[in-house]
């Protein structure tokens, strides 16, 4: 069960009738969501960089942190949902998106609260979606190898990212710079159409979500978000990263088996009408 406190702040194909530019930016409801775990040391800096007026509400979902993330989030005026047990990174996002849809978001921006991603670009991502240039925006940490490494990205992580991103681009027919970003923005229709509730509760949730979105015909794009690696920034270790890499390859295989009609994975099943 969750505790909620309010503060300020195949799959069905892409429905063409719901496409097109949204109303003017003043009438487009943008909500930022933050899947948090022990983020107390970086949360305030992440919030401070969000341009004033660019989001209507900020939802933080705490995954049973052992630090004072929840208390700090409350003091900052965020809408806080506190999990009573750790549900995993994917499980956390499921709560984020469920609540954002309930609150009537037109655009949902997911950003890690670890200050690794530049939250100043939130209005840029939201505007590209509002203008109907794309349905999903990812923040790319890698413009050049030199910049990524100078920003503190470990060499092994950079190599793994390049190999996996290249493979995923080929498998999914995309041209993204970084498939493994913790900055993502979604049009509401994406969250209403993709069966993300069937996804893993672990880190591979993100990979499954993008494969589902491609299957459903949604348009993916990215914007540059300079990388920031430091001790307080969250990062999974080599062992979990290796497992994540293998699961990413498995998702690509499931994508193609579904596309060829060989095997219909539950993650690619149509989302039931509500």
What would you note in describing this structure?
- With 274 residues, the chain is α/β, with parallel strands linked by helices.
- Helices cover 37% and strands 15% of the residues.
- The chain has an eight-stranded mixed beta sheet, sandwiched between helices.
- Strand 2 (30-36), helix 1 (40-48) and strand 3 form a beta-alpha-beta unit.
- The longest helix is centred in the C-terminal third of the chain and has 22 residues, at 238-259.
- It is globular.
- The relative contact order is 0.17.
- Mean pLDDT is 91; it is low at 8-18.
Placed side by side, the strands forming the largest sheet appear as 1-4-3-2-5-7-6-8
Which stretches are low in confidence, meaning pLDDT under 50 for 5 or more residues running?
A: 8-18
Question: Which structural class matches the secondary elements?
Answer: alpha/beta
The CATH homologous superfamily is termed Spore Coat Polysaccharide Biosynthesis Protein SpsA, Chain A
Query: In total, how many beta strands?
Result: 8
**CATH topology category name:** Spore Coat Polysaccharide Biosynthesis Protein SpsA, Chain A
- Secondary-structure element series: EEHEHEHEHEHHEHHEH
The appropriate CATH architecture is Alpha-Beta Complex
Q: Which CATH top level class fits?
A: Alpha Beta
Helix % is 25-40%
What count of helical segments does DSSP give? 9
Distance between the termini: 22 Å
Strand content: 15-25%
Largest sheet: 8 strands, mixed
Indicate the radius of gyration in whole angstroms: 18 Å
Count the domains. 1
User: How does the overall form come out from the CA principal axes?
Assistant: globular
Mean pLDDT: 91
